[in-house]
Amino acid sequence: MKYAFSFLAVIALILIAWLGSLIPGMQYFFGVAVPYLAVLVFLGGFIYRVVQWAKSPVPFPIQTTCGQGKSLDFITHNKLESPDTSGQVVGRMALEVLLFRSLFRNTKSELYDGPKITYESSKWLWLFALLFHYSFLVVIIRHMRMFLNPVPALIGYLDWADSMFEIGTPAMYMTTAGLLTGVLYLFGRRLFNRHVRYLSLANDYFPLVLIFSIAATGALMRHFLRDGIDIVAIKELAVGLVTFHPTISADIGSIFYIHLFLVCTLLVYFPFSKLMHLGGVFMSPTRNLKNNSRAVRYINPWNPDIKPHSYAAYEDEFREFMVEANIPVEKELEPPPEEAAEAAPEKKEE
Amino acid sequence: MSVPKLEQLSKSVVQGPSLATGAIPKVDWTELPVEFKSGNYAYPAKKDKVEYLNSQKGLYFPNAREWSPEDDDWKFPENWKEIIIKGLAERLNKFRSLKIFMDCCVRCGACADKCHFFLGTGDPRNMPVMRAELLRSIYRNDFTLAGKVLGKMAGGRELTVGVLKEWFMYSYQCTECRRCSVFCPYGIDTAEITMMMRELLHLVGVGINWILEPVSNSNRTGNHMGLQPHTFKDNVDFLADDIENLTGIRITPTFNRKGAEVLFITPSADVFAEPGLYTAMGYLLLFEHIGIDYTWSTYASEGGNFGLFTNNESMKKLNAKMYAEARRLGVKFIIGGECGHMWRVLHQYMDTMNGPADFLEVPKSPMTGTVFSNAASTKMVHISEFTADLIKHGKLSIDKSRNSHVKATFHDSCNPARAMGLLDEPRYILDHVVDWVEMPENTIRERTFCCGSGTGLNTDEIMELRMRSGLPRANAVKYVEDRHGVNTLACVCAIDRATLTSLMGYWNPNVTVCGISELVGNSLVMDGETRGELEEGLRTMVF
Q: pLDDT digit string (tens) for B172-193?
């Protein structure tokens, strides 16, 4: 039922934007005030979270090594999975951030009678996660053409490449399909993969439903509900927003305000949610540290002053045994006073 | 403690109603009961051990008392909630890893079936992500805006006594092996989270005896077995006697000797019990063979560090003995024996906690002249690195046929694999001393499966749990046993040598467990030896 809440929440958001934008005068609120506020919260929140993380030190080098560390000359060092230099760390992080290296390792286990356990390579999550993230990235970059005047050539090329198959008029973007497919897969596995289904929270469904709705309203605007969409007016608003001279024309349809409001919701939600993995992935100590912790001393800023149980105390407790066992000691045994006193007269008698 | 029969457990693992076998619990995980019954928990720490530890400078172990997990009342201090929340706040400020791992998880589930405890028990709270949620839900509730505003809707829940009990159960059903962190797209390391849960539990006096007694023994006697100096020496001398009986070579190891070039530290289990004893005999033979000037220490007679399983203060206090002793004896560098978590501490914590070791020299093999630049700062070399280098330079006289009774496979211990990247040194040694094969690729190297009983969980009262969590490892051994006739499971870890022996005894009774150094010692051709046919190498009984 956790996903039902997410649907309800997104439907509520859609209704707010739809009905709200129909109220005269409220276009300015939804088209200007909310976007400014959302960007402010997003930037402020993102920075706040990263600063909060950075405030806590990394006291110990806790790199997870996923390959042979640097060792003897004749042992082949795996530079990307067990990096020894900063450059190698950058390489490892690039693989992780750009290609989702760790997800690529994924396996699926099965239990059989015997018992027998198997671990089959399972790359679907990796594949669809890549599809989802890269599509999303291209969609965001493509949108820059709305905010920039003139549109930089690079974004023009990207736009052309993204729609090069020319399916439909206007041509469908591949990344729109990619983003929607990616979200559907990620949502579907939350429902049908029993592990993931059991561990998913409302916090996991909500962003997926939200992003799906954003992509869907975007596609609707481009392909189906074009009547109310005056692209010139939208561009005017977008450029106005980034140049701090926003102007609203009355010709923009509700679908646009719904799309924009959902995007604003995502921006506001972002810094306070798991979506911060965007920042966190760069700061994860198991991935971004060098595996050279025996070669170079790593400093813990709060290293507590704790001394071992001293050798002197140890020897004091066990000296007799040590002497008897011919283990060298720092301080020789002193004969106990009463024994020494007793020993003396005995000698005399002899 | 009674362990189910093999057939029974085999069936239960595959067919029992668990999340691993396809049965999804009807209720949310927060509603699942935590039931302590004999056999599913490790015994609580004895009152006198906790009191002793609390009396040690730099350590804090409050609320020593008699208690049982089966009791309703765990006799927490009155302000337990405040203690835990304050403790968590403090740790969030001290460990970035904790903060990031609390915030970044997207619950993609890649870790879910990577955990040997989950595969063996099917308990949803043994999926690494769920184990983390046990703590994360409290973190959300008390430390995040979303949690404070939305509470349960944002995945938060209130801290209750029940939550602490849950932490106790599941932070001691994790061996901090870090396999999940290899598969996690953000490198989230459940070990970090389990460590924090254990630290927090110690703040209210909840810990297990199988860890805290070794910690207090290590502190007082120098080793976790509690061997006093003369006993420790006796044990090593017995091994020297055995070597003499087997090979005719008389070895006279030295102890606490000042001016030796090298200090040798290994887990005390190696001089205490089979099959570690044979590994220790391997060390003795190797060092005698190359004529290295080295000494054992009775004061720093423990390589392992049960503080790692407790809290970072205990870890530091115990580890500090190594450098203190190296300084006192005036050695040039330290060689460390085969041990898993010991090497995590040495590789990732020691220099930071107790360095700089500027009174030592950068390790240089006296035999080959090789400078171990990878240990330039800690000044501590792994025995496998040291041995591999000797073999490479032809310094060892090896007769591989002396291991012809062995068909080995190699178990990568969690920590050398995932916290050091020590993967190919032991393999290089194996190539030269024995006939061996690899286990399936998803169960070795950085993807290796834990023995199932690490981090102080190799205690007998939870044997069923151990056999379950060790199943993935045992199953991979079974695979090569069936296909290649493997009869020996080699490893570089003292805990493995103890725990895998129980595990093989249960799942694969024809497979024995040994250390790499045992196989090395076995294969060495010693000067002046009068060695007969030893059908089982160093394990041969001679009368």
A: 999 999 999 999 999 999 999 9
